[in-house]
Design goal:
The protein has about 350 residues and is of the alpha+beta class. The protein has seven helices and 20 strands. The protein is globular. Residues about 1-20 have low confidence and may be disordered.
């Protein structure tokens, strides 16, 4: 595993006294990129604003800056512990496959050996989910996009993002990665809650199906859920907890949320919609296999608005007063998995 950094002198908790073994560190990240669109007009989606002639005057210069900004962020997430960029990255608000290719051609990412998993979703705005993975580390086996079927009160289908599901292996351990972007709170949290409920139920069915096929699957369930860790759709329907068994999810973001931390802000209130959940079997502290170690919100100073009315908020590409040239209206989130290094 070329890009997994071996921490030779780093010890985790009580393991210091046990055997002082070196560890492998694996980083998983998720980032809502805030409308990472190219400059071309797609006649089949509502992307007109993000064109040179559109409301946002979205030029190639702005697009390239956005790519460079996102590339910088992805290259730095979690490096203080792992020494390398994340091995697995979930993304949302991606327009198409070509945007991902352009992203991986940026200076910060072009030598990272990332590969792309992406499917076009039926979302009206044309935004999709994607998975980037280090080809030296993760070997994918299956990938598919699972539709979330939603109807309004008149029986008309509401198109939203598919759930991206990828299975594969890391050092002979079976992993499944789900990338989500649940329906927004447009119209209010209560009015849109049932839409996210349907996304949650679809997600849970996927996970139960994976475990029925192979109970050993280590499922990492990430995304912009447009719900906080305490909300019913995440906490109850996905069956998340701060203490989880094998077929539940441990949600490290719940503790952060209780401390008032967030990944996005609206009207001076912080939400933690961006979350990464791990199956309970990954919290056993048996470091002979990859286990959860810790999670965080990546919020370096350059990602934070430094002045004005929105000081402290994520430094975004577009604000209420137009183009800002920033990164995203969300902070990325990430977690580290650790495993004892095989001495042989």
């Amino acid at each position: 595993m070329n890009l997994i950094h071996y921490i030779l002198l780093f010890f985790f908790g009580n393991l210091v006294a046990q055997d002082q073994a070196p560890y492998e560190v694996l980083t998983v990240a998720f980032y809502n990129t805030e409308n990472l669109f190219d400059t071309e007009n797609d006649n089949f989606t509502f992307d007109d604003d993000r064109t040179p002639e559109g409301k946002d005057v979205w030029t190639k210069t702005k697009y390239q800056l956005k790519l460079n900004n996102i590339g910088r962020v992805l290259s730095e997430i979690g490096t203080e512990l792992s020494g390398s960029s994340p091995e697995i990255i979930g993304l949302c608000e991606i327009e198409n496959y070509g945007v991902l290719e352009d992203l991986l051609n940026t200076e910060e990412l072009k030598n990272k050996n990332y590969k792309i998993i992406h499917f076009d979703s039926p979302d009206r705005r044309g935004i999709d989910n994607a998975l980037l993975y280090n080809n030296d580390v993760f070997t994918p086996k299956t990938s598919k996009a699972i539709a979330v079927f939603i109807q309004n009160n008149e029986g008309k289908r509401i198109y939203t993002r598919d759930i991206l599901v990828t299975t594969g292996s890391i050092e002979d351990e079976n992993f499944a990665f789900l990338v989500n972007h649940w329906p927004s709170r447009s119209g209010g949290e209560k009015a849109s809650r049932n839409y996210r409920k349907l996304a949650a139920l679809t997600n849970r069915r996927i996970c139960d199906s994976l475990w029925a096929i192979d109970p050993s699957f280590k499922i990492i369930n990430m995304g912009d859920f447009n719900d906080d860790p305490k909300n019913e759709n995440v906490k109850n329907l996905l069956n998340t907890s701060e203490k989880a068994n094998q077929f539940q999810f441990y949600n490290p973001m719940l503790r952060m949320y209780k401390k008032g931390l967030g990944s996005l802000a609206y009207r001076d209130n912080w939400n933690l919609f961006d979350q990464i959940l791990v199956s309970g079997a990954m919290t056993s502290k048996n470091y002979e296999h990859f286990q959860y170690y810790r999670a965080g919100i990546f919020k370096k100073d350059y990602l934070i608005t430094s002045s004005g009315q929105y000081k402290g908020y994520p430094f975004r590409s577009y604000g209420y007063n137009g183009y800002l040239g920033g990164f995203s209206d969300h902070f990325p989130v990430y977690l580290h998995l650790v495993k004892k290094k095989n001495p042989h």
